[in-house]
Amino acid sequence: GGVFLTRCNSEMLDCKIIYLEENKNTIPYNITAVSSGSFFSTQPFVSKHKSQKALYFVSDRKGGCGGLDIWLSIIDKNGNFGIPINAGSNINSINDEITPFYNHYNSTMYFSSNRSGGLGGFDIYKVEGSLNIWREPKNVEELNTPKDELYLTFYNEKRGYFSSNREGAKFQNTEY
Q1: Which of 50, 160, 158, 152 is nearest to 111 (CA)?
Q2: Which of 21, 34, 85, 143 is the right S-S partner for 2, CB 3.0 to 4.6 Å?
Q3: What is the pLDDT of residues 70-96, one digit of tens each?
């Protein structure tokens, strides 16, 4: 086991996903398959699909649908990362798709997008499927407002947390 992190330069323009192995006195290392090249890569999330393990992440790498897209890398039984695969046009749009979270309780990916047709800003969407085979995403309207809703995560089958800058939120300034 271990933990995935994002390391960025001081301008937050060059971000790479790194891995820190658990219980080892080593420094975090770049995941070459995911973080090579001059692409912005961030928001890592690991999930299991039956016997298949995948790292989902957000990137502006070439071959996407536009803006930031959700990508995945298959992790083999030896811990090697496969070539990144775009999660597909059922999830990704010409706009930004961010903050992926796969809920294994209901085999559903939750993510946020600022695509047209939402309630405004970033909205939370859900979509059934796995890896790069997904059904049509649905706006989770009961959670969304004209502001930004993102980073939905579940800690059990029906309960979780998300972030929002809606009225009443505690924030440092109006942008964050």
Answers
A1: 152
A2: 21
A3: 999 999 998 899 999 999 999 999 999
Beta-strand runs (E) in 31-143: 41-49, 52-59, 69-75, 85-86, 97-103, 108-113, 123-130, 133-134, 138-139
Q: How far apart are the first and last CA of the chain?
A: 32
Confidence band, pLDDT 50/70/90 cuts, at residue 39 = confident
Residue type, 131: L
Residue whose entry in the numeric block shows the structure tokens 């996903």: 17
* pLDDT digit string, tens, across residues 5-25: 898 887 777 889 988 888 777
SS3 (DSSP) at 35: helix
